[in-house]
Amino acid sequence: MLYLGFYFGVLSMICLYNFHWYNVTKEKSYLYYAIYKLFIILIYLQNTQTIVTNEFAIILSANIIFIAILLFTKEFLALNINNKKMAVVINYTMGFLVLYFTYSTITGDYSRYTLPYSLVLSPLFLLGFFIYLRGFEPAKYYALGWGLSLPLIGLTDINNFNIADFYPDVPFSLIANIIESIILTYAISVKTNLIIKEKEAQSKILIHQAKLASMGHMLENISHQWRQPLNRISVFMINMQTHIMDRYKDEKYLPDVLNQSQLQLEYMSNTLNDFTNFNKQSTDKENFSASSVVSNIHNIIGPTLEKNSILFETKIHNDFSMVSHPNELAQVILNLIQNAQDALVSREVEQPVIAVIIDKKRISIQDNAGGIADEIVQQIFEPYFTTNAKTSSLGLGLYMSKIILEKYCNAKIELNQNKQCTSFNICFL
C-alpha cells in the first residue's frame, strides 16, 4: 500500500497546483484538469473502501471525470477555434453522458458503465495529434501525455477484463495516471505561457496602433493649418504668372521658376496627404493592388533613401490585387525597408540597393547588406528579441510585423538569405 500513499500524494500536489494556477491566471484548463484529478483521487478512495460509498457515488464520480476530461480537452485544444466540429461533438457527448447517467440512476442499472478505459480514452490521443498537425504547438504535449499513458491503461484493462494475466500486481493504471498528470500539467503551463505572450503582443499592437492614430490626428491638424497658406501661396504664384505673361511677354526665367515653385507646393500638399493617410488605421477591408501600396511607401521613404545614396528598385513581375487592410500592410513593408536601410547604412555597404519584388501573391523586400548573423536568425521573429546595434530596428518590429500580417492581412512572413542578400517574403494565403 506504500505506492498508494505516493500516488495520492503526487495527485494531491498536482490537483492543488492546478487549482492555484487557475486562481492566478483564470485559465479554465487548470480548473477542469484539477477537477478531473480531484475526482480521480475520490474514486480510488472509494474503490479501496477508504471512505464509505456506494455504486451511485462511484458512477457519479466517473461521469464527472469524463465530463471534466472533455471540458479540459475542449478548452486546452481551443477546439472552438481549431476544430469547431469536434467542439460540437464534445458538447453532444457531454449531453449524452448527463442524460445516460440520469436514465441509469432512474432505472438503477449501471451495468453498461464497465467499459475498457483505454478504448474510451484513445480518441483523445488521436484528437491531440490531429490538432498538433494543424499547427497548434501545445497539442503535442497533450498527445504525448495520453500516448504514453494509454498503453499502461490498456494493460490494466487486459487484467480487469480477464483477457490475460499480465503482472496483475503492477499498478499500471496508477503509473499511467502519474505520467499523464505530469505531462499534461506541464502542457497547460506551456499553453498559458503562449496565451500570455499573445496577449502581450496584442497589447503592443494596440499601443502601436494608438501611436499611429495619434500621429494621424497630429498630421491632420498640421495639414489643416498648412493647407490654407499653401493654397494662398499657390494663388499668389498664379497671379504672378498671369501678371508676367501680360506685362513681360519676353520674360522666360520668372515663369519657369514660378512653375517649379508651383510643383513644389503640390508636392508638399501631396506629401501631407500621404503621411496623414498612412497613419490612419484601416477600419474596413479594401480592394487594392500590391504595387499601389509599394508606390505609396516609396513616396514617403524615397527622400530618406536618396539622402543615404540607397538605390530603391520596384520589380513587378505579376501584380495582384487583394481585399485587406492597406495601411497595416504598408506599415509592415515600411518597417522591413527601414530595417534594410539601417543595415545598409550601419555596414557602410558600397552601392547599396533595396529591391521590392511583386510576384504571384508575394511581396519580397531584398537588400544587399550581407545577411543576418546565423546565431540570431532563429530568434528574429520572437517577442522581446532585439540586437544590440543602436540603429537596428530588428526584434520587436519584426515580431509585431509577423503578428500584424497574420491578424490583419491573412499573410505570413518568411526569411531567405545568403552571404550577400537578405530577403523578407510576405506570402498571402
Question: What structural class do helix, strand and pairing data support?
Answer: alpha+beta
Distance between the termini: 58 Å
Strand content: 5-15%
Number of helices: 13
Mind explaining what this structure looks like?
This protein is of the alpha+beta class and 429 residues long. The chain folds into 3 domains: 2-199, no CATH class; 204-275; 283-428, Heat Shock Protein 90 (2-Layer Sandwich). 68% of the residues lie in helices and 10% in strands. The strands form 2 sheets. It has a 5-stranded mixed β-sheet. A two-stranded antiparallel sheet has the order 1-3. Strand 6 and strand 7 (422-428) form a beta hairpin. The longest helix has 76 residues, at 172-247. The chain is elongated and about 115 Å long. The two termini are 58 Å apart. Residues 388-396 have low confidence and may be disordered.
What key phrases describe this protein's structure?
Heat Shock Protein 90, elongated, 13 helices, two-stranded antiparallel ribbon, 429 residues
Summary, kept brief:
This protein is α+β, with helices and mostly antiparallel strands and 429 residues long. It contains 13 helices and seven strands.
Q: In terms of topology, how is this protein built?
A:
Blueprint: H1 2-25, H2 28-47, H3 55-76, H4 79-82, H5 84-107, H6 117-133, H7 139-160, H8 172-247, H9 253-278, E1 286-289, H10 290-307, E2 311-318, E3 321-324, H11 326-346, E4 353-359, E5 362-367, H12 374-377, H13 396-408, E6 411-417, E7 422-428
Parallel strand pairs: 2-4
Antiparallel strand pairs: 1-3, 4-5, 5-7, 6-7
Helix pairs in contact: 1-2, 1-8, 2-3, 3-5, 6-7, 7-8, 8-9, 8-13, 10-11, 11-13
